[in-house]
Amino acid sequence: MSARVHTKDSFAFRYGKVQIRARLPVGDWIVPEIWLQPKDYEYGPDYASGRIRIALARGNRQLKVGDWDIGGDTVESGILVGLGEQVQGRVVEWKIPDGEQRKFHNFTLIWTPDNLSFSVDDLEPLKLLGPDQQKLSQLLSFEEPLADTWKNGTAIAPFDQEFYISLGVSVGGVRDFPDNSTSGSYAKPWENMQFKVSSFFFW
Question: Model confidence over 179-191: pLDDT tens digits?
Answer without folding.
Answer: 888 888 788 877 7
